[in-house]
Write a structure and sequence with these properties.
single chain, alpha/beta, TIM Barrel, 4-stranded antiparallel sheet, binds flavin mononucleotide
Length: about 300
Protein backbone atom coordinates (compact mmCIF):
# COMPACT_ATOMS: atom_id res chain seq x y z
CA UNK A 1 0.00 0.00 0.00
CA UNK A 2 1.29 3.48 -0.79
CA UNK A 3 2.02 5.93 2.05
CA UNK A 4 -0.90 8.19 2.96
CA UNK A 5 -0.88 11.61 1.35
CA UNK A 6 0.12 14.50 3.62
CA UNK A 7 -2.43 17.30 3.21
CA UNK A 8 -1.13 19.49 6.05
CA UNK A 9 -0.05 23.04 5.30
CA UNK A 10 1.45 25.86 7.37
CA UNK A 11 0.65 29.44 6.49
CA UNK A 12 3.17 31.30 8.61
CA UNK A 13 1.86 30.84 12.14
CA UNK A 14 -1.36 29.09 11.04
CA UNK A 15 -1.06 25.30 10.73
CA UNK A 16 -3.95 23.47 9.05
CA UNK A 17 -4.60 19.73 8.74
CA UNK A 18 -5.58 20.31 5.11
CA UNK A 19 -5.86 23.31 2.79
CA UNK A 20 -9.66 23.33 2.31
CA UNK A 21 -11.61 26.02 4.17
CA UNK A 22 -15.10 27.50 3.80
CA UNK A 23 -15.39 31.15 2.73
CA UNK A 24 -16.96 33.89 4.82
CA UNK A 25 -20.67 34.51 4.32
CA UNK A 26 -21.31 31.30 2.40
CA UNK A 27 -21.44 28.79 5.26
CA UNK A 28 -23.19 30.78 7.99
CA UNK A 29 -21.40 30.34 11.28
CA UNK A 30 -20.62 26.72 10.42
CA UNK A 31 -22.85 25.17 13.06
CA UNK A 32 -25.96 25.34 10.83
CA UNK A 33 -24.31 22.78 8.53
CA UNK A 34 -23.09 20.34 11.18
CA UNK A 35 -25.96 17.92 10.39
CA UNK A 36 -25.13 17.94 6.66
CA UNK A 37 -21.35 17.71 6.52
CA UNK A 38 -18.51 16.66 8.82
CA UNK A 39 -17.07 19.97 10.03
CA UNK A 40 -14.15 18.18 11.69
CA UNK A 41 -12.79 17.09 8.29
CA UNK A 42 -12.38 20.65 7.00
CA UNK A 43 -9.08 22.47 7.20
CA UNK A 44 -11.09 25.23 8.82
CA UNK A 45 -14.18 27.36 8.61
CA UNK A 46 -14.28 31.11 8.18
CA UNK A 47 -17.31 32.66 9.85
CA UNK A 48 -19.79 35.03 8.32
CA UNK A 49 -18.46 38.58 8.78
CA UNK A 50 -18.88 39.71 12.38
CA UNK A 51 -19.31 43.28 13.61
CA UNK A 52 -19.43 45.02 16.99
CA UNK A 53 -23.25 45.25 16.93
CA UNK A 54 -25.72 42.98 15.08
CA UNK A 55 -26.65 44.10 11.52
CA UNK A 56 -29.97 43.32 9.77
CA UNK A 57 -28.57 43.66 6.26
CA UNK A 58 -30.05 45.05 3.04
CA UNK A 59 -33.66 44.78 1.82
CA UNK A 60 -34.56 41.97 -0.66
CA UNK A 61 -33.97 40.99 -3.38
CA UNK A 62 -30.37 40.61 -2.29
CA UNK A 63 -29.16 37.64 -4.30
CA UNK A 64 -29.60 36.74 -7.95
CA UNK A 65 -28.09 34.18 -10.29
CA UNK A 66 -25.93 35.30 -13.18
CA UNK A 67 -24.28 33.31 -15.95
CA UNK A 68 -21.48 31.40 -14.25
CA UNK A 69 -22.05 32.94 -10.86
CA UNK A 70 -24.23 34.98 -8.55
CA UNK A 71 -24.62 38.52 -7.29
CA UNK A 72 -25.24 39.33 -3.63
CA UNK A 73 -25.90 42.41 -1.57
CA UNK A 74 -26.56 40.78 1.78
CA UNK A 75 -25.27 43.90 3.51
CA UNK A 76 -23.12 42.07 6.04
CA UNK A 77 -26.09 40.82 8.06
CA UNK A 78 -24.83 39.13 11.23
CA UNK A 79 -25.61 38.47 14.89
CA UNK A 80 -22.71 40.53 16.24
CA UNK A 81 -19.54 39.36 17.95
CA UNK A 82 -21.01 38.89 21.44
CA UNK A 83 -23.80 36.51 20.39
CA UNK A 84 -21.36 34.60 18.20
CA UNK A 85 -18.95 34.07 21.09
CA UNK A 86 -21.71 33.22 23.59
CA UNK A 87 -24.06 31.10 21.46
CA UNK A 88 -22.18 29.71 18.44
CA UNK A 89 -18.52 29.19 19.26
CA UNK A 90 -19.12 26.80 22.20
CA UNK A 91 -21.12 24.56 19.81
CA UNK A 92 -18.36 24.58 17.21
CA UNK A 93 -15.77 23.50 19.76
CA UNK A 94 -17.41 20.07 19.85
CA UNK A 95 -16.33 19.15 16.31
CA UNK A 96 -13.75 20.84 16.22
CA UNK A 97 -12.90 22.62 12.98
CA UNK A 98 -10.32 25.38 13.16
CA UNK A 99 -12.41 28.50 13.41
CA UNK A 100 -11.27 31.68 11.69
CA UNK A 101 -13.36 34.74 12.53
CA UNK A 102 -14.02 37.20 9.72
CA UNK A 103 -14.24 40.72 11.17
CA UNK A 104 -15.32 44.05 9.73
CA UNK A 105 -16.11 47.56 10.90
CA UNK A 106 -16.72 51.07 9.64
CA UNK A 107 -13.82 52.60 11.58
CA UNK A 108 -10.34 51.54 12.70
CA UNK A 109 -11.63 51.59 16.29
CA UNK A 110 -14.32 49.00 15.49
CA UNK A 111 -11.82 46.59 13.89
CA UNK A 112 -9.50 47.02 16.88
CA UNK A 113 -12.35 46.41 19.34
CA UNK A 114 -13.32 43.20 17.54
CA UNK A 115 -9.78 41.86 17.32
CA UNK A 116 -9.13 42.68 20.99
CA UNK A 117 -12.39 40.94 21.96
CA UNK A 118 -11.40 37.62 20.33
CA UNK A 119 -7.75 37.79 21.35
CA UNK A 120 -8.16 35.80 24.63
CA UNK A 121 -10.67 33.34 23.11
CA UNK A 122 -8.92 29.97 22.71
CA UNK A 123 -11.46 28.62 20.19
CA UNK A 124 -10.51 31.27 17.63
CA UNK A 125 -7.57 30.02 15.53
CA UNK A 126 -7.07 33.15 13.43
CA UNK A 127 -8.58 36.47 12.43
CA UNK A 128 -9.49 37.43 8.85
CA UNK A 129 -10.14 41.12 8.18
CA UNK A 130 -12.73 41.96 5.54
CA UNK A 131 -11.38 45.31 4.38
CA UNK A 132 -13.94 45.75 1.57
CA UNK A 133 -16.01 47.95 3.86
CA UNK A 134 -16.68 51.66 3.63
CA UNK A 135 -14.59 53.74 6.04
CA UNK A 136 -17.03 56.30 7.48
CA UNK A 137 -14.12 58.50 8.57
CA UNK A 138 -12.92 58.69 4.96
CA UNK A 139 -16.11 59.46 3.07
CA UNK A 140 -16.96 55.81 2.49
CA UNK A 141 -13.76 54.82 0.68
CA UNK A 142 -13.12 51.13 1.33
CA UNK A 143 -10.22 50.38 3.70
CA UNK A 144 -8.77 47.93 1.22
CA UNK A 145 -8.64 50.45 -1.63
CA UNK A 146 -5.96 52.76 -0.23
CA UNK A 147 -2.55 51.36 0.73
CA UNK A 148 -1.86 53.93 3.45
CA UNK A 149 -5.25 53.61 5.12
CA UNK A 150 -4.98 49.82 4.97
CA UNK A 151 -1.48 49.74 6.47
CA UNK A 152 -2.69 51.93 9.33
CA UNK A 153 -5.71 49.69 9.94
CA UNK A 154 -3.65 46.49 9.92
CA UNK A 155 -1.02 48.03 12.20
CA UNK A 156 -3.70 49.03 14.72
CA UNK A 157 -5.20 45.51 14.70
CA UNK A 158 -1.75 43.90 14.87
CA UNK A 159 -1.06 45.86 18.05
CA UNK A 160 -3.91 44.08 19.87
CA UNK A 161 -3.65 40.54 18.53
CA UNK A 162 -1.06 37.80 18.57
CA UNK A 163 -3.34 35.47 16.59
CA UNK A 164 -2.51 34.72 12.94
CA UNK A 165 -3.76 37.77 11.06
CA UNK A 166 -5.25 37.37 7.57
CA UNK A 167 -6.13 40.35 5.37
CA UNK A 168 -8.68 39.65 2.64
CA UNK A 169 -7.97 41.52 -0.58
CA UNK A 170 -10.56 43.09 -2.84
CA UNK A 171 -10.29 42.59 -6.60
CA UNK A 172 -11.87 46.03 -7.12
CA UNK A 173 -8.53 47.83 -7.21
CA UNK A 174 -6.03 48.52 -9.98
CA UNK A 175 -3.00 47.07 -8.18
CA UNK A 176 -3.80 44.29 -5.68
CA UNK A 177 -0.06 43.68 -5.14
CA UNK A 178 0.35 47.21 -3.78
CA UNK A 179 -2.54 46.62 -1.36
CA UNK A 180 -1.04 43.27 -0.33
CA UNK A 181 2.29 44.95 0.34
CA UNK A 182 0.54 47.54 2.52
CA UNK A 183 -1.09 44.74 4.52
CA UNK A 184 2.30 43.12 4.97
CA UNK A 185 3.85 46.43 6.08
CA UNK A 186 1.08 46.72 8.66
CA UNK A 187 1.95 43.31 10.09
CA UNK A 188 -0.39 40.84 8.34
CA UNK A 189 0.74 37.19 8.43
CA UNK A 190 -1.40 35.92 5.55
CA UNK A 191 -3.37 37.34 2.61
CA UNK A 192 -6.63 35.90 1.30
CA UNK A 193 -7.85 36.73 -2.20
CA UNK A 194 -10.33 37.51 -3.56
CA UNK A 195 -13.50 39.07 -2.22
CA UNK A 196 -16.39 39.59 -4.66
CA UNK A 197 -16.17 41.72 -7.81
CA UNK A 198 -18.54 44.67 -8.01
CA UNK A 199 -21.31 44.01 -10.56
CA UNK A 200 -24.97 44.50 -11.43
CA UNK A 201 -27.84 42.85 -13.33
CA UNK A 202 -31.08 44.22 -14.84
CA UNK A 203 -34.35 42.42 -15.56
CA UNK A 204 -35.07 43.57 -19.14
CA UNK A 205 -38.81 42.92 -18.75
CA UNK A 206 -39.44 44.99 -15.62
CA UNK A 207 -36.46 47.22 -16.47
CA UNK A 208 -35.51 47.08 -12.78
CA UNK A 209 -32.15 46.14 -11.29
CA UNK A 210 -32.25 42.57 -9.99
CA UNK A 211 -30.84 43.67 -6.60
CA UNK A 212 -32.55 46.22 -4.37
CA UNK A 213 -29.18 47.90 -3.84
CA UNK A 214 -28.63 48.00 -7.66
CA UNK A 215 -24.96 46.93 -7.35
CA UNK A 216 -23.73 43.77 -5.67
CA UNK A 217 -20.80 41.41 -5.32
CA UNK A 218 -20.17 38.86 -8.08
CA UNK A 219 -18.92 35.41 -7.05
CA UNK A 220 -18.75 31.88 -8.45
CA UNK A 221 -16.95 30.29 -11.44
CA UNK A 222 -17.21 33.53 -13.46
CA UNK A 223 -14.59 35.17 -11.21
CA UNK A 224 -12.12 32.28 -11.03
CA UNK A 225 -9.65 33.51 -13.68
CA UNK A 226 -9.54 36.94 -12.02
CA UNK A 227 -8.96 35.34 -8.62
CA UNK A 228 -6.23 33.09 -9.99
CA UNK A 229 -4.40 36.05 -11.53
CA UNK A 230 -4.55 38.02 -8.27
CA UNK A 231 -3.33 35.01 -6.23
CA UNK A 232 -0.48 34.39 -8.69
CA UNK A 233 0.69 38.02 -8.64
CA UNK A 234 0.33 38.51 -4.90
CA UNK A 235 1.97 35.19 -3.95
CA UNK A 236 5.01 35.89 -6.09
CA UNK A 237 5.43 39.56 -5.33
CA UNK A 238 4.34 40.13 -1.72
CA UNK A 239 6.02 37.18 -0.06
CA UNK A 240 3.25 36.26 2.41
CA UNK A 241 1.32 32.97 2.36
CA UNK A 242 -1.91 33.32 0.35
CA UNK A 243 -5.35 31.71 0.66
CA UNK A 244 -7.02 31.49 -2.77
CA UNK A 245 -10.76 32.22 -3.09
CA UNK A 246 -13.01 32.56 -6.13
CA UNK A 247 -15.19 30.15 -8.05
CA UNK A 248 -13.65 26.96 -6.69
CA UNK A 249 -15.87 23.92 -7.30
CA UNK A 250 -13.68 21.00 -8.37
CA UNK A 251 -10.40 19.40 -7.38
CA UNK A 252 -8.88 20.78 -10.60
CA UNK A 253 -9.83 24.27 -9.41
CA UNK A 254 -8.05 23.58 -6.09
CA UNK A 255 -4.95 22.35 -7.92
CA UNK A 256 -4.90 25.47 -10.10
CA UNK A 257 -4.91 27.76 -7.07
CA UNK A 258 -2.17 25.73 -5.33
CA UNK A 259 -0.01 25.82 -8.47
CA UNK A 260 -0.58 29.59 -8.77
CA UNK A 261 0.88 30.00 -5.30
CA UNK A 262 -1.97 29.58 -2.82
CA UNK A 263 -1.14 27.58 0.32
CA UNK A 264 -4.84 26.95 1.03
CA UNK A 265 -8.22 27.74 -0.53
CA UNK A 266 -11.68 28.80 0.56
CA UNK A 267 -14.87 27.42 -0.99
CA UNK A 268 -17.71 29.96 -1.27
CA UNK A 269 -20.66 30.03 -3.65
CA UNK A 270 -20.31 26.31 -4.48
CA UNK A 271 -21.58 25.59 -0.94
CA UNK A 272 -24.99 27.04 -1.81
CA UNK A 273 -25.55 24.27 -4.35
CA UNK A 274 -24.01 21.57 -2.18
CA UNK A 275 -22.94 22.22 1.42
CA UNK A 276 -20.75 19.09 1.33
CA UNK A 277 -18.53 20.53 -1.44
CA UNK A 278 -15.67 21.47 0.90
CA UNK A 279 -15.65 18.12 2.68
CA UNK A 280 -15.80 16.26 -0.66
CA UNK A 281 -12.86 18.31 -1.95
CA UNK A 282 -10.71 17.18 1.01
CA UNK A 283 -11.26 13.55 -0.03
CA UNK A 284 -10.91 14.32 -3.74
CA UNK A 285 -7.63 16.16 -3.18
CA UNK A 286 -6.14 13.29 -1.18
CA UNK A 287 -7.27 10.78 -3.84
CA UNK A 288 -5.88 12.89 -6.66
CA UNK A 289 -2.49 13.36 -5.02
CA UNK A 290 -2.28 9.63 -4.29
CA UNK A 291 -3.17 8.79 -7.91
CA UNK A 292 -0.55 11.25 -9.18
CA UNK A 293 2.14 9.97 -6.78
CA UNK A 294 2.41 13.34 -5.04
CA UNK A 295 3.31 12.73 -1.37
CA UNK A 296 2.51 16.15 0.05
CA UNK A 297 0.25 18.96 -1.01
CA UNK A 298 3.09 21.37 -0.20
CA UNK A 299 4.95 20.19 -3.33
CA UNK A 300 2.30 21.84 -5.47
CA UNK A 301 2.29 25.31 -3.93
CA UNK A 302 3.57 27.78 -6.53
CA UNK A 303 4.72 24.93 -8.78
CA UNK A 304 3.14 26.31 -11.97
CA UNK A 305 5.44 25.73 -14.96
CA UNK A 306 5.84 29.12 -16.58
CA UNK A 307 7.04 29.64 -20.13
CA UNK A 308 10.80 30.28 -20.12
C1 LIG B 1 -23.80 35.51 -0.06
C2 LIG B 1 -22.36 35.90 0.18
C3 LIG B 1 -22.00 36.52 1.37
C4 LIG B 1 -20.67 36.89 1.61
N1 LIG B 1 -20.35 37.49 2.81
C5 LIG B 1 -19.03 37.81 3.06
C6 LIG B 1 -18.65 38.38 4.32
O1 LIG B 1 -19.47 38.57 5.23
N2 LIG B 1 -17.34 38.71 4.51
C7 LIG B 1 -16.38 38.49 3.54
O2 LIG B 1 -15.20 38.77 3.75
N3 LIG B 1 -16.73 37.91 2.34
C8 LIG B 1 -18.01 37.59 2.09
N4 LIG B 1 -18.35 37.00 0.88
C9 LIG B 1 -17.29 36.74 -0.13
C10 LIG B 1 -16.83 35.28 -0.10
O3 LIG B 1 -16.24 34.96 1.14
C11 LIG B 1 -15.82 35.01 -1.25
O4 LIG B 1 -14.70 35.86 -1.09
C12 LIG B 1 -16.41 35.23 -2.63
O5 LIG B 1 -17.76 34.79 -2.67
C13 LIG B 1 -15.62 34.55 -3.73
O6 LIG B 1 -15.62 33.14 -3.58
P1 LIG B 1 -16.63 32.15 -4.39
O7 LIG B 1 -16.55 32.55 -5.83
O8 LIG B 1 -16.14 30.77 -4.11
O9 LIG B 1 -18.01 32.42 -3.82
C14 LIG B 1 -19.68 36.63 0.63
C15 LIG B 1 -20.05 35.98 -0.57
C16 LIG B 1 -21.37 35.61 -0.80
C17 LIG B 1 -21.71 34.92 -2.10
Amino acid sequence: MSAPVDLSVALGPLALANPILTASGTFGYGLEFAHLTDLGRLGGIVTKGLSVAPIRGNPPPRVCETRGGMLNSIGLQNIGIERFLAEVLPGLERFPPRVIVNLFGVSVEEYVRLAARVEPVAGVAAVELNVSCPNVQRGGLEFGQDPEILARLVRAVRAVTGKPLIVKLSPNVTRPVEIGEAAKAGGADILSAINTLLGMAIDPVSRRPRLATVRGGLSGPAIKPVALRVVFDVARQVGLPVIGIGGIETVDDVLEFLLAGASAVQIGSALFRDPTTAERLVTALADRLAADGVGTVRELIGAVRLPS
